[in-house]
Amino acid sequence: xxxxxxxxxxxxxxxxxxxxxxxxxxxxxxxxxxxxxxxxxxxxxxxxxxxxxxxxxxxxxxxxxxxxxxxxxxxxxxxxxxxxxxxxxxxxxxxxxxxxxxxxxxxxxxxxxxxxxxxxxxxxxxxxxxxxxxxxxxxxxxxxxxxxxxxxxxxxxxxxxxxxxxxxxxxxxxxxxxxxxxxxxxxxxxxxxxxxxxxxxxxxxxxxxxxxxxxxxxxxxxxxxxxxxxxxxxxxxxxxxxxxxxxxxxxxxxxxxxxxxxxxxxxxxxxxxxxxxxxxxxxxxxxxxxxxxxxxxxxxxxxxxxxxxxxxxxxxxxxxxxxxxxxxxxxxxxxxxx
Length: 338
Ligand code: PEP
Ligand code: MN
Description:
Blueprint: E1 2-5, H1 11-23, E2 27-32, E3 37-42, H2 50-54, E4 59-63, E5 83-85, E6 88-90, E7 96-100, H3 107-119, E8 124-126, H4 144-157, E9 161-164, H5 168-174, E10 180-183, H6 191-198, E11 204-207, H7 214-226, E12 232-236, H8 254-261, E13 266-268, H9 270-274, H10 277-290, E14 294-298, H11 316-336
Parallel strand pairs: 7-8, 7-14, 8-9, 9-10, 10-11, 11-12, 12-13, 13-14
Antiparallel strand pairs: 1-3, 1-4, 2-3, 5-6
Helix pairs in contact: 3-4, 6-7, 10-11
Phosphoenolpyruvate is lined by residues 102, 128, 132, 184-186, 207, 237, 272.
């Protein structure tokens, strides 16, 4: 249930209603907007009478929420969430450009790529230190050493770093070291991991599960947010379909659907969606045109030698060319939406 207050409703009245609701065992999530305050009620609201609450002189309207996700629901929070990571923003008109290799392989490899993508306009560095590989015999990542390399690159470029955590224990060990924690597609419903990243304030990039519905995707975000971490960025990275010519099928409708249902930003990962380098640019253009809040792109200076996902990585020169087109397209989209 949601209570929307009249503009300028006195603080004292709001506080007293909040206390009253909390006394009934209900958790009240308060959103203070530019003009109006909204109470999102979480818990068993069956005992509440919406009509009666509406009789209050400070209440504008009361709405019942059918969806199981509350904190991620746009009704709870009508304004777009802007996630601010060390001054780099994603959401609410801020476009995030995340780039870097699939996996961190060495200091030299990561720094070479980090410098190149920064020069082309990336504002976040990505790289996997713990890799969720389909085969246990494939390269599993450099672990802590990989995170240390990312920190060196952050120091040099000034860009925030994003890396995937695969286990709940990674949160306590490394949440302070990185700027954004990535939750991979395979872990989207690893509820223990979601709860653990919910307990810190480090922003989270949550990737859509391989076969997850939008509701399951938003419920995964809800797990994180319900623990207290509301800095969630969603990421559509393609889903499993019957198609085999592409690695996954990019579900571009994720952008307008998520924007309608949720206030959280959503970025597109064309690299894992298409699974091949020549699909990255067309899918990126689609992402920009449809109004995504950002993109995440795999870049490698020697894709033929990459230990993972070389086939879908752009070389820095192609990334640079694509970025120029992204900037142009962004201008058109921004102009169009004015
Ligand atoms: C990745 O970003 O490198 C990755 C493993 O992605 P996903 O979880 O979407 O497969
Ligand atoms: Mn990858």
